[in-house]
Amino acid sequence: MLVYNQEELARFVEEAKQYARYGKVADYIPALGKADPNELSIAIYTPDGRVVDAGDVTVKVTLQSISKIIALALVLIDRGEDEVFHKVGMEPTDYPFHSIAKLEEKPAKPLNPMINAGALVVTSMIQGGSVSERLERLLAFVRRLAGNERISYSDEVARSEFETAFLNRSLCYFLKQHGMIDEDVEELMDLYTKQCAIEMTCIDLARIGLVLALDGRDPCSGEPLMPLDVARICKTFMVTCGMYNSSGEFAIKVGIPAKSGVSGGILAAVPGRCGIGIFGPALDDKGNSLTGVKLLERLSKTHSLSIF
Ligand code: GLN
User: Which residues make up the CATH 1.10.1500.10 domain(s) of the chain?
Assistant: First the structure.
């Protein structure tokens, strides 16, 4: 089994940090604008239960778009592939994650569940009687995947996004007009912004990555936390759409199923080998962690982690 070396990891983190000056912290969600662009941390979780980390891994990161992969897994378990893919497609896009453009073409079905339009449809399919019940179901699932009962969401970040999410509201109204969502838009925005504000450390992120890397099995007990097919679909979307409209370049340079969020988080799953969690809030122009991608590129090349 591959054993990652702490000193090497710390060195890679310092090297990747040099790129922070070329990135920019997301500030369209005001609360995210407070992050320090020079922050960079990583945790690698291996199937033997070992964690190797570097940087300050006690810092919590909100999931943002990383939550899209977890919500998708839950909804696939709840409703099955046919119902989910009736409302959201499977194709990557070279439009930005918040684009409305493609919805103008008929049918107004979002291209995939990793862009905001698709994620809003997926979140609207989370089952439960009320927003709080649906959020609790999602949180319970996240806690099981991370093996951490204390995970919750940041009220400050959720509120900050809720108050400023005019673009996402527009997507919702567009989707509602075309019958892709039924529910009240403010309720959906309430649930979606809380989903995006679920926060955890890089170690938690890495643990979730490891569950996906192990085809949905709990790394300690071996118990299935999601069906094999659901884990497979999630990892496939992570490869084709996980890094927004630079997923192709990422596949060539890094080659690891991964999902990023505008908080600067990345969740990566190296099949059979490890889960990786990263927090580096300096973003590139597509909204991916610039330092995080540099770090993953270095790791992947050094340890031949590409799946291709
Ligand atoms: N909450 C963010 C949004 O909807 C998530 C986007 C992202 O991380 N790319 O804008």
Answer: 65-196
